[in-house]
Amino acid sequence: MKKVLMLAVSLTMAGSTYAQDETKIKVSGYLESYYVYDFNKPLDHNRPGFIYSHNRHNEVNLNLGFIKGAYDNGTVRANLAIMAGTYSNANLAAEPGVLKNIFEANTGVKLSENSNIWLDAGIFPSHIGFENAVSKDCRALTRSILADNSPYYESGAKLTYISEDSKWLLSGLFLNGWQHIQRPDGNNTAAFGTQVVYTPNPTITLNYSTFIGNEKPDISKQMRYFHNFYGMFHFTDKFHLTAGFDYGMEQKSKGSSEYNKWYSPVIIAKVNFNNKWGVAGRWEYYSDENGVIIPTETPNGFKTTGYSLNLDYAPVSNALIRLEGKIYDSKDKIFVREVNMVNHNAALTASIAVSF
Asked: What does the pLDDT read at residue 10?
């Protein structure tokens, strides 16, 4: 298995033997099974269209599973992870062929002997947001509307600098677009991103990320500008607070000086009673009146508040059992219950996640 992974990342170190290199390869994995009961009882088992994780109703399913090989000898590094699950079905639906099953695939080279500067290229987890696809690493079981509707992954190249004291991370990115591995047909517009992370001490993390690009064919180009802010605060070993805010704007038409705008604040508080039990509560609001990200064709667009509460139990350090209740309350009737349009959606979600 290790020999296969070495070939997959295509790295050969001159003058090194296999016995020396194999210790630099790490193999890891993750599996998360889940069950959701949506009280609106969708007949096709699909939860509302703005939900991309844990999105199948009334069935036991795999949200995300992957096997990952990572190589790092201090000068070059590479990651390759292959995945399956309803997460990949929903989030990579537009990607062709086997690209739908790539969770991560990138290589990097350290550019300086004296400074921590890296140039990486390939497919990466997104530089936007504090919630990622690996539920076990997130404060709450399910994702916020904000996370589900901004990039989980991206492809391109990035230049990253980490300060000697590890308090600052600065990154600039050249991207294929807003959550794309393969560019959409007719689109040749370059996309860019930046990230600044400040960690003054182990209890505080502050982040500011941006995206600039065009998601339409060049003939009808509409530039998109997006800002992501968040702070993560560990007030004590038992109490954590995360606060985030997204703000985006996109041209109403090619060359227009007017923009459609959307925004989303979110707050997540988590209390760990001990090393096995914890609870987390989330409040969020998402406003997209013009349907840039979440089209509804309703008078007020998408203006939805979400509330969730989840209970966590970790029987061992690499496993997590979770139960979450979530309610959405929308200004317009955007949810379907039987044959009627309603303002509310409620669901219970349970999951078991194991990492190795």
From this structure: 41
pLDDT given at position 11: 36
Long-range contacts of 143-147 (CB under 8 A, 24+ apart): 143/52, 143/53, 143/54, 144/244, 144/264, 144/266, 144/268, 144/282, 144/284, 144/306, 145/50, 145/264, 145/284, 145/286, 145/294, 145/304, 145/306, 146/244, 146/246, 146/264, 146/266, 146/284, 146/286
**How buried is residue 96: exposed, middle or buried, by Cβ count under 10 Å (0-12/13-18/19+)?**
exposed
The DSSP secondary structure of 121-183, one letter per residue, reads EEEEE-SS-S--S-GGGSSSSSPPHHHHTS-SEEEEEEEEEE-TTS-EEEEEEEESSTT-SSP
- Which residues does residue 151 pair with via DSSP β-bridges, in sequence order? none
Using the predicted structure, report yes or no on whether residue 128 has a pLDDT greater than 70. yes
What span, in angstroms and rounded, lies between the C-alpha atoms of 152 and 143? 11
Produce one character per residue of 112-131: b if its CB has 16 or more CB atoms within 10 Å, e if not: eeeeeebebebbbbbbbbbb
For residues 262-270, average pLDDT:
98
pTM of the model: 0.90
pLDDT band for position 339 (cuts 50, 70, 90):
confident
Residues 51-87 as b/e (b if ≥16 CB within 10 A, e otherwise) read: bbbbbbbeeebbbbbbbbbbbebeebbbbbbbbbbbb
Q: What is the pLDDT of residue 331?
A: 97
The backbone torsions φ and ψ at residue 49, rounded to the nearest 5 degrees and listed phi first, read -65, -15
Helix (H, G, I), strand (E, B) or coil at 13: coil
Overall residue count recorded for the chain in this entry? 356
Task: Classify 209 as helix, strand or coil.
Answer: strand
The answer to whether 121 and 156 have CB atoms below 8 angstroms apart is yes
